[in-house]
Amino acid sequence: MKPRRAPAQAGAGLRGRVVAAFGRHFTVEFDDGSTRQCYPRGKKGTAAVGDWVMVAPEGPAEGAIQSVLPRRNLLYRSDEMRTKQFAANVDLLLIVVATEPDFSDDLVGRALVGARNADVEPVVVLNKIDRPAGLPAARARLAPIAALDVPVLELSARDAAATRALLAPRLAGRTTLLLGQSGMGKSTLLNALVPGAAAATQEHSQALGAGKHTTTSTRLYHLPADVAARADLIDSPGFQAFGLQHLDASQIVDGFPEFAPYLGKCRFYNCTHTHEPGCAVLGALEEGRIAPQRHALYRRLLDDMQLGQRY
Ligand SMILES: Nc1nc2c(ncn2[C@@H]2O[C@H](COP(=O)(O)OP(=O)(O)OP(=O)(O)O)[C@@H](O)[C@H]2O)c(=O)[nH]1
Ligand SMILES: [Mg+2]
Ligand SMILES: [Zn+2]
Questions:
Q1: In terms of Cα–Cα distance, which of 1, 15, 25 is closest to 66?
Q2: pLDDT at 9 over 60
Q3: Does 11 have pLDDT greater than 80?
């Protein structure tokens, strides 16, 4: 995906940032805080929440997206069926899990691989510590990830003051994406940091007849300056699957920093680290220096990739 250039001449459009996306409808916010409902002009190039775009104003409150400005990164997932964009120009990824309901460590591992490949710093938030029954099991499941020096922050989003104290320093001056399965507490976290934000989300999902407060679209919010300066937080709908079929074998390996000390030490230069004799990665796995769950995830990602190549 090659980024397209902004129009060179002044007055060709207004520069703004996509703060909400509903299918092919986008809310774009401008420097003065005003917003316009925008649609993409032409078929090519899809904007994502977090993208900077050039807009040709139409009437008082609408506009056409002329171009998507070059982005630092784009977090997305993909499987055989489709590609789904999460957000663009993200600095920090908060992967949200909870003591209950059960979360999938497979999805957490995939989010980490996606983050490393998009050059986004990952942090895991273990939410709902006010419900401690599931805490030991959750910690055990996260141990192989914590061993990679990925911070795991334990908190209760229902305690807004503690949540702010813990997260605000990491959010200042950056764009942060909340990602995780449904029910883990992403929107509750958002609401602790941006009071009133969840009210808007709930109104929206009720309008769609979604019933529960589950988030149905991705949206960017600004933290109040007294919580954190120049901090943007993106809430997203919970996901059930995190396909990474857009990654090739070497990008998948890059997602496993614990393999790094052994790379280049295998007997075969084109070792896939799955079955080869004399594989240094498999040796480290056998000696307990690589966690079995992590190597199993690596195998699944390679299998997914091979599946994708058949289509
Ligand atoms: N006990 C407890 N419940 C929490 C906490 N955080 C969130 N919850 C509850 O967990 C449920 C799900 O929270 P949400 O914030 O809607 O979860 P979400 O991750 O945004 O879910 P989706 O929008 O469906 O992806 C709600 O009933 C929250 O009140 C917490 O720290 N402690
Ligand atoms: Mg939500
Ligand atoms: Zn190997």
A1: 15
A2: no
A3: no
